[in-house]
Amino acid sequence: MTGPMVERHRDTTSRPHIIDVHHHFFPSNLNKASSNEKVGWRTPEENLPWTPELSLRYMDASGIDIAILSFPAIASGSVGQENRDLARSRNRAMADLCRAHPHRFGFFATLPFLDDIEGALAEIAYALDELMADGIALSSSYGEGADATYVGDDRYDPIWRQLNKRSATVFLHGAQTASSTPYPHPFLGIPITEVPNETFKAAAHLIVTGRKRKYPDVRIILAHLGGSTPFLAARVAVLSGHMGCNLSPDEIMEDFKSFYYDTALSAYPTTLTFMQSFVGPERILFGTDFPAASSDTVGWYTNHVENFYAANPKKLKKVMSDNALSLFPRFKNHPRAVEHYCSL
């Protein structure tokens, strides 16, 4: 682990602009203790209750200029006004934080339970047009157990059609869904063992159903370097064709390479080397997963990102900010971004 947060602070005149695309918003009425117990995870005690000031202190100490907030998607529940109101209240709260700190926060809007197509479409319009959200956060699947439905399902086509029409950016996070067997050990809870595979299953589902290719203007960020996606993509490329998928192996690999991948809780020399050959630095974005993880934990992964690209400052800038600025151009007006671009 790294030392205290303050030890990560660097001279802002020499470091690259940093945008964290994977930074969670925990509303005050969220019972994290209860949800943690269900999935086998411990949110750091020092990060609860979460406040914007907690994130700002962490960002200042870590040299992060902007964090794009996201609330874990409403992946279970029922179609109805209660779910719509819950999503609306959380999006308004995140929008309020962005207005209060316009140079520090952006946000991905959350949607009602996705089976509520009408409600989801209404919230997309409200969030993007009225609240000026930077994108939309989606879960890998919606519902529980045998009733779970992955985001590439036909029923969600109207949502993808609307997102494509708007050239929206989507932050896709694996659902905290238990598999058919219990997680193997208290040290290996659902966020560690299952979430990365859920991200992969959603990405693969979008591809083999043709939805990724049908709606190419949606820019999709996969959390945690895509989980197991980079390592299983070639398996899908050939074996799904054997099972009847009409896309060629090359087309499937091309679609996997069209995602963006964030570094949150996943950066290590071996994974970064693989991603370098898989998609190159142009598709990799910096992410932390704070406050779900401690500053020391996040710092360990961040150090690996910085060390991996230390010999190539241009690639480091791509990962830490340039790729995010291409997706979220409004942040080019940030004082640090202006300073960066004027120096090029």
From TrEMBL:
GO terms for molecular function: carboxy-lyase activity; hydrolase activity. It comes from the Eukaryota. One of its GO terms (biological process) is secondary metabolic process. Residues 19-329 form the Amidohydrolase-related domain. Signal peptide: none annotated. One of its GO terms (cellular component) is cytoplasm. Keywords: Decarboxylase, Lyase. SUPFAM superfamilies: Metallo-dependent hydrolases. PANTHER family: 2-AMINO-3-CARBOXYLMUCONATE-6-SEMIALDEHYDE DECARBOXYLASE, ISO-OROTATE DECARBOXYLASE (EUROFUNG). This is Amidohydrolase-related domain-containing protein. It comes from Mycena pura. The lineage of its organism: Eukaryota, Fungi, Dikarya, Basidiomycota, Agaricomycotina.
